[in-house]
Write a structure and sequence with these properties.
Structural class: mainly alpha
Shape: globular
Distance between the termini: 20 Å
Strand content: under 5%
Largest sheet: 2 strands, antiparallel
Radius of gyration: 19 Å
Strand order of the largest sheet: 1-2
Number of strands: 4
Helix content: 40-55%
């Protein structure tokens, strides 16, 4: 048995969707969730002609952010066809996204491999044949086989190892879903990245040979975003005793961290509230049926979404977009979404848009 993600009418078992993704809920349950619809419409409209998000400041197709957009579209239960188009477009860049070239020829990027494999599975594709590349085998090749780091993904690159807990979570789900022999150890290593307080850290232990690879052993820094992302991934794994305990601890930590106004910061003392962290936390809390907290988070995000009432500002043509924070929203109203600011707005939308479904009581039930 796998966990059931509780989103009211969007509840599903782990066999139906990957973490950060859901199947489309019934139309009746969607009634009135205009804010979320506008958000995903804006995000989908940002895709270029090649079905990928193009960084306007530096003029390149951002495959990683495009996959985030696809996860958001699926997580909102909308535009499944667009998500599949993103998968097809990303598959066309599988080598450049997941493998090294030039001086780094022969390199393999573990987090990118895991993310694309996970997204491919989400949209119903075959992760063993993504434009001719077996991403499952490629991921197994960068997964440590033995020792204190058994199950850990590691970049193979002349530029160093930048694999982190988010990539590890994608790897745990992708390998487990694919029936890989490496799945169990990838999950076990992922669970070590949860600190006693309940949160998951982002960086992994720098020394892959260190005897203690755990979060507590390295005094990992709290991270709302990482914890929320990993929590949703954990819900897609077999509900073992260890996984269930990790889900409960992560959800409790997130719930305790929510501010009175419904918002979340990054988890680091002194950091202000933002829609990235608030959206992800609200999304995750809804996943475990903590609907009151999820609704409070959605209401806070809604305040930073461009609506029709902003028609007399520079954001008039950006209805549905979500600002990162109050300062970004204020600047946007006077300057619009400039090329230098566009990336931040897109990232806010990919993480916050699905949380807006919780504005409706029909879409999240305890």
């Amino acid at each position: 048995m796998k966990h059931t993600i509780l989103r009211g009418a969007v509840a599903l078992t782990g066999t139906a969707a990957l973490a950060l993704g859901t199947v489309a809920p019934a139309d009746a349950a969607r009634a009135g969730v205009r804010e979320e619809k506008k958000a995903v419409q804006w995000l989908a409209g940002e895709l270029g002609e090649g079905d990928l998000l193009v960084n306007e400041q530096y003029d390149f197709a951002d495959v990683g952010l495009s996959l985030d957009a696809g996860f958001a579209l699926k997580g909102a239960g909308r535009k499944g066809a667009v998500a599949r188009d993103i998968a097809t477009a990303a598959a066309g860049q599988v080598a450049s996204y997941t493998q090294g070239s030039g001086d780094d020829e022969g390199g393999v990027y573990a987090g990118a491999t895991a993310k694309l494999a996970a997204f491919t599975l989400l949209v119903g594709g075959d992760a063993t044949d993504v434009d001719g590349i077996d991403l499952v085998a490629q991921l197994e090749g960068v997964t440590t086989d033995e020792g204190p780091s058994a199950g850990r993904i590691v970049d193979q690159s002349i530029y160093g190892d930048y694999a982190n807990t988010i990539g590890q979570a994608f790897a745990a789900v992708a390998l487990s879903r694919s029936g890989s022999d490496e799945g169990g150890s990838a999950v076990s290593f992922l669970l070590q990245q949860q600190c006693e307080a309940g949160y998951f850290r982002l960086p992994l232990t720098a020394d892959t040979d260190a005897a203690d690879q755990s979060c507590d052993g390295a005094e990992g820094q709290p991270s709302v975003d990482t914890t929320a992302l990993v929590l949703n991934q954990l819900l897609e794994l077999d509900a073992t005793e260890d996984v269930t305990a990790a889900v409960d601890a992560a959800a409790a930590w997130l719930g305790d961290l929510q501010k009175d106004n419904g918002s979340f910061g990054t988890g680091v003392d002194g950091e202000g509230s933002n829609t990235n962290s608030t959206g992800l936390a609200g999304w995750a809390l809804a996943s475990v049926g903590s609907c009151g907290k999820a609704r409070k988070a959605a209401r806070w995000v809604k305040k930073l979404q461009v609506a029709g009432k902003h028609s007399d500002t520079a954001l008039a043509d950006e209805v549905g977009a979500i600002a990162f924070n109050r300062a970004a929203f204020k600047t946007g109203k006077s300057e619009g979404i400039t090329a230098s600011a566009n990336d931040q707005w897109r990232r806010a939308a990919t993480q916050a848009a699905p949380s807006l479904q919780n504005l409706s009581k029909a879409t999240c039930k305890q």
